[in-house]
Amino acid sequence: MQVYPNQFNQEISRSLKPVYLLFGDEPQQKFEMIEAVRNSARQQGFTERTVFVADKEFSWSALLEATQTLSLFSSQQLIELELPTGKPGTEGSKVLQTIAATLGTDILLIIHGPRIAKDVQKAKWFKVLDEIGVFSLSYALEGKQLYSWVQQQLQLANVSTTPACVKLIADFCEGNMLAAKQEIQKLSLLFDQQHITEDQVEAAMVDQSRYNVFQLIDVMLGGEQQRCIKMLYRLESEGIEPNIIIWALLREWQLLWKLRRMLDEGEAIQWQRHGIWRNKQALYQAALNRLSKNTLTVIRDQLRDADIAFKQQTVVRPYIKICHLCMLFLAIPLQTLPFMD
């Protein structure tokens, strides 16, 4: 049974399930869910905790034995298994299916790892565990969802502030929820039982925004100019290699060119055939709505020239050129931009 992270505490307050499958690339949400299971399990008598990591040296027989052997120290035990790749492999899959069929009431199992795709969720081991447990996939929050999460965290920390302050905190820590949590805890200590103003928040906080190239592409496709510029600024400050972004832009151009041709020829787009899942379709549709074939041709020429210049290392300010390329994807005419070199 799948449960969204913002509903997880409500779900676990009803009853403990035998298995929790907690995956995703957003560490703060995933950590909070794991902690919620640990705390609830401890309250219900699962006082012993055993941790396994399925690395290259891992013995799956050790996990199987742990789930089928009565502990000497506790009648109930919590077992945690980390899957660093999100996949257990052939042997692990068989062991997990066996565990699902034989798991007793004295064992509670948490399996966690990075973001997993649909193919993992369709695997036999995953399905049999999901049938008897809870699955939750954490992901980076943005926009209204991030705002609501920050507001909730402030309330939990007994921090009184204004909606403008909530937005300021969300902007400062976008893409880095762990930092947001830490900053809110710091504000709680600095201004105990005080109503906090925007000036106090701004003075106390450090800009903790963290982004990756995939988030940049999503924002660019969605047409969000200011967020796109902010992300590029942060990526540059974090030392992300410019060629990685150029490669990503080239890949997106190729996909958009294919989709544009299909639309111009009157064909219906089969999104999943092109690897575009439901949560991304609106972004690509927004990009196609503003990018004509002629505009994409201009982008192609600029990308080609930029790729050559980057490989020859003749670009003085790489991120300025990347910013201009992103603006072209946002359908901002080249002549309105500063000189690209």
From TrEMBL:
GO terms for molecular function: DNA binding; DNA-directed DNA polymerase activity. Residues 20-131 form the DNA polymerase III delta N-terminal domain. It is an enzyme of class 2 (transferase). It comes from Alteromonas pelagimontana. It comes from the Bacteria. This is DNA polymerase III subunit delta. Belongs to the DNA polymerase HolA subunit family. Gene3D superfamilies: 1.10.8.60, 1.20.272.10, P-loop containing nucleotide triphosphate hydrolases. Its EC number is 2.7.7.7. It catalyses: DNA(n) + a 2'-deoxyribonucleoside 5'-triphosphate = DNA(n+1) + diphosphate. GO terms for biological process: DNA-templated DNA replication. Keywords: DNA replication, DNA-directed DNA polymerase, Nucleotidyltransferase, Transferase. Residues 214-331 form the DNA polymerase III subunit delta C-terminal domain. InterPro entries: DNA_pol3_clamp-load_cplx_C, DNA_pol3_delt_C, DNA_pol3_delta_N, DNA_polIII_delta, P-loop_NTPase. One of its GO terms (cellular component) is DNA polymerase III complex. PANTHER family: DNA POLYMERASE III SUBUNIT DELTA. The lineage of its organism: Bacteria, Pseudomonadati, Pseudomonadota, Gammaproteobacteria, Alteromonadales.
